[in-house]
Write a structure and sequence with these properties.
Blueprint: H1 7-22, H2 30-36, H3 38-41, H4 51-63, E1 78-80, H5 82-91, E2 98-104, H6 114-132, E3 142-145, H7 149-161, E4 167-176, H8 191-194, H9 200-207, E5 211-218, H10 228-236, H11 242-247, E6 252-259, H12 265-271, H13 283-299, E7 308-311, E8 314-317, H14 326-344, H15 352-357, E9 360-364, H16 371-378, E10 385-391, H17 392-400
Parallel strand pairs: 2-10, 3-4, 3-6, 4-5, 6-9, 9-10
Antiparallel strand pairs: 1-2, 6-7, 7-8
Helix pairs in contact: 1-4, 2-4, 4-9, 5-17, 6-7, 7-9, 13-14, 16-17
């Protein structure tokens, strides 16, 4: 392996990975890139070429502007609902300091892709809030970024809003809050690769283009799941290790919320007929978890509820909005809760304690499917939600929920 990959090779690696997207295909995996550039990456020793080395080259190509990614810009199709924003702040006054509620104009052409369309608009709304709010981001800040489409859209719009000069800060540090993952579906296994665009490491690389001044980046550069016996040692090598975290504790976090169901990358990987290696260490308990969620949904049709959600890929339990049958409650409280703990113990992602120690958390999440998970986080005393960005329908549902706090794990 060469001691230093040349800038030219870094740029060609990045362009080679992205080129299939221009033809409607999927981004190449790191293993495919290694095979394609093996002769140039090999120093003659014929040793194993680490995926993280190629991943670092890919990331640096974007950070340093050796290549840039341009996509169709997200066009604003919403208005702010200040009445609902004030109602949410009053309703969740113990945790929520600001709210951004988007009244999204329907696009008939996106009816088959409604959830993605809503999250594009929410990403635009939160990005605009960040860009227009004075002193939200200051020189010296450490900004933590989660994974997923909500955060991806925030980052995309911020880089689109970039104007010469970029946001002026003397110095800022961008940190990834979770390891890498891709997952496809049984019908579209190759679609998996393009989902690396939703990884936190990629968000860190892209957001670095938004700032002028000195930008430090702290990606994870590791797959998300590892055997429990190896996790602690691997974690210590990343900025999430206890010693490094003390030096780079985020005072601003941008994160989304996911629920374990169709469309969630954990769910897709279990349903994938061509599984990747990214979740192998947790495949068995994750399959059990997915089975429980499916069975609960089948027995409680019409209830907009999922017992498993995540923030930055860290799973947490969501209590049902009303009491279910005795056996269902036992499954939630014992089986599902235990599987969540078992899986989290193998993941390279920000911990509950680390989230509680972070500064302002900016949450971007919407649609009725995620309301119970959002509600759980807003009632979660360990992590103060500074800003919630959501859509009108989700906001109205949140305001109808019971006021009592729900203790979450």
């Amino acid at each position: 392996m060469p001691e230093r990959i040349s800038d030219s090779l870094k740029a060609r690696i990045a362009m080679a990975r992205m080129e299939p997207l221009l033809k409607g295909g999927s981004m190449l995996s790191y293993s495919e890139i290694i095979e394609q550039f093996r002769d140039e990456l090999d120093d003659g020793s014929h040793g194993t070429i680490a995926e993280r080395t190629v991943q670092a080259a890919f990331r640096e190509a974007f950070e340093r502007g050796l290549v840039t990614l341009q996509k169709k810009p997200i066009i604003r199709s919403y208005t702010r609902r200040h009445d609902l924003e004030e109602a949410l702040k009053h309703r969740y006054h113990q945790t929520l300091m600001e709210a951004v509620v988007a009244d999204i104009e329907r696009d008939p052409g996106r009816d088959d892709d409604l959830s993605n369309y809503i999250h594009e608009q929410l990403g635009h709304a939160l990005a605009t809030y960040i860009d227009e709010t004075a002193h939200l981001i200051r020189s010296g800040d450490v900004i933590g970024l989660g994974s997923g489409r909500g955060v991806r859209n925030v980052v995309s719009v911020l880089t689109e809003l970039q104007r010469p000069p970029a946001l002026k800060v003397d110095e800022v540090t961008l940190v990834s809050l979770t390891g890498s993952l891709y997952a496809g579906t049984a019908e579209e296994p190759k679609k998996a690769r393009s989902e690396l665009l939703f990884d936190a490491d990629t968000h860190v690389a892209l957001l670095s283009q938004y700032f002028s001044g000195l930008v430090h980046t702290r990606p994870i550069l590791q797959r998300i799941a590892h055997p429990k016996s190896e996790r602690q040692a691997l974690l210590a090598k990343t900025w999430l290790g206890p010693d490094q975290y003390k030096l780079h504790r985020p005072n601003v976090v941008v994160a989304g919320v996911g629920t374990l169901g169709p469309g969630h990358r954990f769910w897709q990987e279990i349903k994938n007929a061509h599984p990747s290696l990214y979740l192998d260490p947790v495949r068995k308990p994750l399959k059990q978890l997915v089975d429980h969620v499916e069975q609960l949904a089948a027995r409680n049709r019409g209830l907009e509820y999922c017992p498993v959600a995540d923030i930055c890929n860290r799973l947490f339990l969501v209590r049902p909005p009303r009491a279910l049958g005795d056996e269902d409650m036992r499954i939630i409280d014992e089986d599902i809760d235990g599987l969540i703990d078992e899986i989290n113990a193998c993941l390279l992602t920000v911990t509950k304690t680390q989230l509680s120690e972070a500064g302002k958390i900016l949450l971007v999440a919407g649609t009725p499917r995620k309301v119970q998970a959002i509600h759980a986080l807003l009632n979660h005393r360990i992590a103060k939600i500074h800003v919630l960005c959501t859509d009108v329908e989700a906001a109205k549902l949140l305001l109808r929920l019971p006021k009592e706090a729900v203790e979450q794990r």
